[in-house]
Predict the structure of Quinone oxidoreductase.
Amino acid sequence: MTTQTRAIRLSRFGGPDVLSLQDVELPSPGPGEIQVRHLAIGLNFIDIYHRKGIYGAPLSLPSGLGVEGVGHVTALGEGVTGFAPGDRIAYVGGPPGAYALARNLPAARALGVPDEIDDTTVAAMIFKGLTAEYLIHRCVAVAPGDRVLFHAAAGGVGSIACRWLASIGAEVIGTVGSEAKADAARRNGCAHVIVSGAEDIAARVRQITGGGGVRVAYDSVGADTFAASLDSLAPRGTLVSFGESSGPVPPLAVSLLGAKGSLFLTRPSIAHYTADPDEYRAAARRLFAAMADGTLAPPQVTTYPLDQAAQAQDDMENRRTQGSVVLLP
């Protein structure tokens, strides 16, 4: 049995103009799947990479887009237990297709959501919050007193991660793209703020740290900041490269890591840090607990109607947004 729904689709890779809202058929959920009617949908830079066909394995076109959302369960596929129609769930991962009024989803990706967190906040926080969780708790376990450089500190992941890092007791140095975003970074817990383009990032980090550098640099910007991130690290420090909003990082000679201080470099993916169901659920519990105790507050949220997904992506890609962007069906 199939029903009709509306979803953002693309049939070719390219700019925001390749996205269009279409009527599509939605089959009944298959074995191990649930059907979800969306209440709010998170927008992330990975969606832009998918739209361009530049992140990992390209989508099989035509395709949907989006990998996170929150909604009510409307139907269960064969073999699904632990959920019932009417349950409110959130999810991260699974096949792209979140930019839709409704969709089918592997039940293993569904997470129960505390009643006290509203739909828009869940959509604004779940992907970015789980990203922040694995970056600062598992990819590199940041400890009190650690000095940390975090690029795009006023962005969606940055606004959450910097608050969390400050609560741990880390000394956070944040970068922002403009002076207008500097106050937001300070409110997010940054002890020091550097405006990219107006200052030499590595030189400023060395000045702040008395020449010692930082234990870890988190870089989602890519081409524009990668060299500065390496030059900001203390000996045996770690560069976590988890995005490339300014373009891909050029090839790197491995010997350079040794020359600059026996450095570590990793390119993590949330898919690998949430692949194990128990680890995925434990990460969500840690995130929801941090929200419940006030450690993490909802970031600034900009909402767009689902039919304005192309404009939302264009604004995010060109850094006209702060915090999180949410699509409302």
The two ends are 23 Å apart (CA to CA). The domain at 144-267 is CATH 3.40.50.720 (Rossmann fold). The longest helix spans residues 119-139. The longest strand covers residues 33-43.
